[in-house]
Amino acid sequence: MSSPDYILETSGLVKEFKGFVAVNDVSLKVRRGDIHALIGPNGAGKTTCFNLLTKFLEPTRGTIRFNGRDITREAPAQIARRGVVRSFQISAVFPHLTVLENVRVALQRKLGTSFHFWRSERSLDALNRRAEELLAEVGLEGFGDKTTVDLPYGRKRALEIATTLALDPEMMLLDEPTQGMGHEDVDRVMQLIKKVSANRSILMVEHNMKVVSGISDRITVLARGAVLAEGSYAEVSANPAVIEAYMGSAAEQLEGVAH
Predict the structure, then answer these.
(1) What is the per-residue pLDDT for 228?
(2) Which member of 65, 97, 129, 145 lies 3.0 to 4.6 Å from 101 by CB, making a disulfide possible if both were Cys?
(3) 76 vs 78: CA distance, rounded Å
């Protein structure tokens, strides 16, 4: 029985590849309105888990429920229409369009007019105000006329969040949102995730423990495809099984942020 407190729930989720169990009996509950982090060492099954949730992969066994509804067998497009949108992969930006044009294309997708390239420029201009609002929301006001390929890396990530927000998601799945960023960009994107989480739920895979400890309400730790621990950052970072699973530098990073 699903609880209205939880927006996304999985029960006994399993994914096998020719005898190899990549995700093993994962039962996950994401509370409505939370930023929930999925962490674990390399090869823990985090990306496979994301692929199951967005139906890029079919589960071998188990169920996925969103807003209390069983979505286990639904197609990726159907799940996106329900309001579960994965950022940074399905919302990749077009490098040679302007920043504003990228957001406008995403707004057209939401309206179902994305392939109506013959529509008059005037009718598309009606979307500009909303596109500009979204750019302001992610700190890109004044960047609308810039060609996307010329944006710094961290700003491109902010644009990808804007194009995701254009689809009006109830839940965002963020896959490594700060990967490859310097400190300044990491801080900016952290604050941005915190800001856009105000009216929605977020599940993110993230390696940077500063980000995980700084903005996560709850954390699930995966190891060898199974749930190893769950709780607040203080709880999981002090868990001996978690420290052992991470070993070396990541464990030191876990402890370092906790102290």
Answers:
(1) 94
(2) 97
(3) 5
Name the range with the highest mean pLDDT among 33-37, 188-192, 235-239.
33-37
Strand pairing of 29-31 and 84-87? Answer: unpaired
- Which residue, 166, 183, 204, sits at the end of a domain? 166
Nearest to 14 by CA among 57, 56, 54: 57
Q: Are residues 132 and 201 in the same domain?
A: no
Per-residue pLDDT of 119-144, as tens digits, reads: 566 666 778 899 999 999 999 999 99
For the entire predicted model, the pTM comes to 0.87
* Angle between the N-to-C axes of helices 128-137 and 99-111, in degrees from 0 to 180, rounded to the nearest 10: 110
Query: Count of domains in the chain?
Result: 2
Same domain, 238 and 187: yes
Q: Do the beta carbons of residue 10 and residue 64 sit within 8 Å?
A: yes
Q: Which of 141, 166, 191 is the last residue of a domain?
A: 166
Range of the domain at 253: 1-91+170-259
